[in-house]
């Protein structure tokens, strides 16, 4: 078995004893340097993913594929986690919300996983691609309209565009009415920001949404999940919705931000399509950087490292995609051979819609603000100091101020508006202010977005 390198070989910012810490300012400042150091251990290395939480991190592309594609030896059910069962994981650890068991497809195996995943994939397959592009364009136009006409001609794209855009699209796809959509967005945003009580806000909103769809089914993802032949319980529907939200919005935020920065960056080759920027971000800046906890069902020796039964093994998609052994012949691989969407039975079921949303988001931004440019070089941008995702902290841009109005929207209304009950649509129309009155929208983001689509 390989031994850890000497202390003097440990890169600056990492502890000179114990495991490498995959969190905090030092990691955020140089994740690639940390991955390069970890490769000296072999195909995997012991790291602390959070204080007092040790995992084995796979950094090799081939080893990652072996783990991801070998469900007979590596399972996803985190109820096996030795340290957690023995009380060695701090109760307030930030790793717990990311790694604790939930009754969803992500943490299930075998027949249970197949049943839940089939319901998700079949429901996603009913999403109309053209409608999804229109929903994304409309959400993008709304967000751009909020900062595009400001005299300053500047914006911070992560907080003002990349973060809220997937939340608007998902709330619409789920068929949320305005008030529930506001709470869904507040809840999932709060979870990622560590806001106390955010779990309860999101759970309450989704529970109310499911009850609404039981009474009034509609053409949306929530209803399709509920009506699937797998006959999911309401609790199972709720957890699949949470998985789609958490597994879809944060990575999309990272992909939209990084791809925009790459396209606007000083080293981007003029004339290359937006799709190339998305692909490059998925290869070199995997939005989900380190995740997919697996638990060996028996001791496994992998490249000289012993992976002990029921100790968590995480996959570093970021390190695997940039594996030096891979980059030597990466040109010969398919452009989609990256692991940003995972691989094997738990590969992301929404990779095609996700890619489409990201491309549409970046293209709409460039079309609406044709002279947009970054205010700082790409190489100086800061990355969030978290192990889970590779996401920019900020993306400052400048442009010539211009007005983007709801007149630029496609003719088709958002799903949440299309399928609202007749009395709800009538009430919405009757409550619209007269042309001479200044509209006052006191609701949350989704309410304001829907009001904007109505020209209010």
TrEMBL record:
Please give the Gene Ontology molecular function terms for this protein: heme binding; iron ion binding; monooxygenase activity; oxidoreductase activity, acting on paired donors, with incorporation or reduction of molecular oxygen
Region (Disordered) spans which residues? 405-443
UniProt lists compositionally biased (Low complexity) regions at 407-440
Similarity annotation:
Belongs to the cytochrome P450 family.
Question: What is the name of this protein?
Answer: Cytochrome P450
